[in-house]
Amino acid sequence: MTTPQLAVPMRRRRPPYGRRALRRNLIGWLFLAPAIALIGIFTITPFAQAILLSFQSWDGVSPDTPWVGLANYDFVASDPIFWASMRNVVFFGVVGFFLGNGIALVMALAVNSVARGKTFFRTVFYLPGVLSVVVVGLLFSFILAPGSGILNRLLGLVGLGALQQNWLGEPAVALPVVAAVFVWFHWGFGFLLFLAGLQDVPKELYEAAELDGANRWSKFRYITWPQLAPVTSIVSLLTLLAALQIFGTVQVLTNGGPGQHTMVPTLAIYNEAFVNWRYGSAAAMSVIFGGALVLLSVVQLAITRRRSRA
Amino acid sequence: MSSRTTGRVDEMSIASEPRRGVRLDKVGLYGLLGVAALIALFPLLWMLSGSLQSLTELLSNDSFLPADPQWGNYVTAWVQGELGVYLRNSVIYTGSAVIGILLVSSLAGYALARLDFASKGVFTFVILAVMIIPAPAMFLAQYKLLISLGLTNNPVGYVLILITSGIPMSTLIMRSFFVSQPRALEEAAALDGAGPLRIFWHVILPLARPGLAAVAVIQGLGAWNEYLMALVLFDDNSLMPIQRGLTAFTSADTPQQQILLAATTISIVPVVIFYLMAQRHIVKGIGAGAIK
Fold it and tell me: What is the mean pLDDT of chain B?
């Protein structure tokens, strides 16, 4: 306490070299060390190892991982299961993106415009989002069961018995049904973000527009939509990534079936490794698929950044 | 809206029409919200109801309510499914992961927000960049890495993976939180001669409670619901977290539907209670995590 007058100016005039700078750097690095160490060991190393493993052959047990060059990629290139999974996941992505985010936005607008019950609806709408993929998968495998499943019984009850079917067993129906379960599970996430974004739109903008006689559509088109743009772009990216990485829901619900009609890449990678014991080709799949996801994120982030700069 | 087009009628209808329009709008709006709420809740209510029925009732009745609640289903699920073990494991893993994430990410977030040191930009970039590496690209190699470290079928290995996957987003949340805080207290503590670590522990962390709470609830939910790595890493039932345990129960014992419904209900009780209690933080945390 005796030297504050001295300490202040010395602290402010940080010399670029010498012991003081070294000490400062060390303190900064020390604070970051745990984070960087964990990321280095458990994220960056495996990421690099996955690429390496995609050029090797490994059965998951033996210590040898012989180099096989491009053999894994050759194998994956002609693997019908993997490419079926890629096609399916594009479908999940499109449905999750348009349907999921469309519902999320409409419901956020609706909740934002009611006077009463905001908290109740917000709570209920995000509730499915706190469940696990396993719970959702098990629950819907019962609800959608052929014959005695509750959905089929409900349809019978309201006179729509003609629509009763084996929801998860029919090749043409299973994929859209699993996508619908995904939307049920995930739309609350975009909803929460849209709702938070709506609450941040300055009220004065609407008041000014009302004075100008703007109708509801033009208020949405010229105020709400542009004001929500940052939220929309981040919600788009995150829901798209979540849809493309879908795994547990599908594994528990259909395990990719019937046939490969609901197979998704992460499940294909898992099966290739842990069921077929071909870790090398599984790694090649994960490099192809993971690379595509990384590319997608980079492109989306670049677009967002350029737009926000413009 | 429609009132404007009929603006030339008598005053009465001009006065009453918008009001009726508003009322109709309101009915439509609440109708839409009600239907959405029903769709969101129905599967869960059905699960609750089904978990209290006997199998024959579950597969036949059309009233949707258990005629004679079978509380015994819960006992059967708990005992047969060994849910106590799985829940205990999940509590331990989730708790350790959250504590680890809070410590590591608040240290890192503070450094990025407040401290001044060489290569700060590089570290910031690394932490941002690893966020775009998706789990499907890594989980195989993480498994291989944990084998070579002898950490498969091991709580430590699993918790380390959980912590690492939570670090980037949490660090960014904490960083933006620290940036928004005034510097006055830290400066005062520094003048008193406190070192950076002491300032961090005694001054910064206690004030960072709102930020820490947001991170804790979001990462807590994520860790509780994690499935892929639990599936890959655990063979030993006594070590499995609840999500992995549920699938183990399903495939090993092929329990009847109502027992499984009771088991899934039990498994979501902690998370639903947590959600209802910590809602405010969850909304804030999700917003902070996604937007900042």
Answer: 86
